[in-house]
Amino acid sequence: MERIKSGIPGFDEKIEGGFEKGSIITVVGGPGSGKSIFGMQFLYQGLKDGENCLYVSLEEQPDDIKRDMLVLGMDPTDYISKGSMLISFASPLNFEYLPIIDLVRQKNVSRLVIDSISALALYFEDRAKFRKFLLDLISSLKGLNVTTILIDEEFENGSNDVKAFSGEYLADAVINLFYTGLGGEYDRSIQVMKMRRTNQYRAVIPMKIDKGGIYVK
Ligand SMILES: Nc1ncnc2c1ncn2[C@@H]1O[C@H](COP(=O)(O)OP(=O)(O)OP(=O)(O)O)[C@@H](O)[C@H]1O
Ligand SMILES: [Mg+2]
User: Fold this and answer.
1) Which residues hold their Cβ within 5 A of ligand 2, which is an ion?
2) Measured in angstroms, how far is the CA atom of residue 1 from the centroid of ligand 2?
3) 171 backbone φψ class: left, alpha, beta (φ>0; ψ -120 to 50)
4) Mind listing the pLDDT tens digit for each residue in 141-169?
5) Which residue out of 180, 209, 215 has the highest number of ligand 1 atoms within 8 Å of its CB and is therefore the one to mutate?
6) Which of 24, 29, 108, 167 lies in the 20 to 30 Å Cα band around 194?
7) What is the CATH number of the domain that holds 124?
8) Is the dihedral of CA 45, 48, 50, 56 positive or negative?
């Protein structure tokens, strides 16, 4: 099995060396838990490794994504101008996944982030339709060997409403981001809830976010 680096310092050693190439990973967390940063670091690793990467944003404008990356020390400018970093804004209102599939194919994209999948859930009539949509999306991506992070928002009140019809069951891996840590410098945490074909570290892992992004201990 081919594994690729996550881009998160300290994380790969908890997951047998990295993500399975071509797998679908859901990153779940509350507002401000670091989901987007996780996705940016994942793509930036790909850029450094000479891969083509696509960030599909349903909420933030491409300029904001660019600025966020810059502030965190991941300058995407050169990669954008030579075409290996693609940032595309998609409206959740009339979202279609086929253009993403086409882009991945045309540009030979090997790392993809969709931020966020939960932004789409609101526009489906019911759970069954949304789950069917996710299933279609995931099976199309599977055929392309593109390692994908689907970002999923979790709501603080513990309501399972959104989770119940999001991608956790369909994805190969589910990673949870938490606000609370074990104290000290690493004041947040991360947990790998599932990772198919991997004997992942199961306990809560200390995590921090600083000017260089996410670090795991
Ligand atoms: N330089 C920094 N030092 C410490 N923490 C930082 C720094 N930069 C960003 N953060 C933390 O990262 C958080 C933002 O991370 P990110 O945008 O990835 O969250 P998110 O889970 O995508 O949020 P949302 O649900 O709003 O999209 C900020 O709320 C802040 O707590
Ligand atoms: Mg975000």
Assistant:
1) 36
2) 30
3) beta
4) 999 999 999 999 886 555 555 545 567 88
5) 209
6) 108
7) 3.40.50.300
8) positive
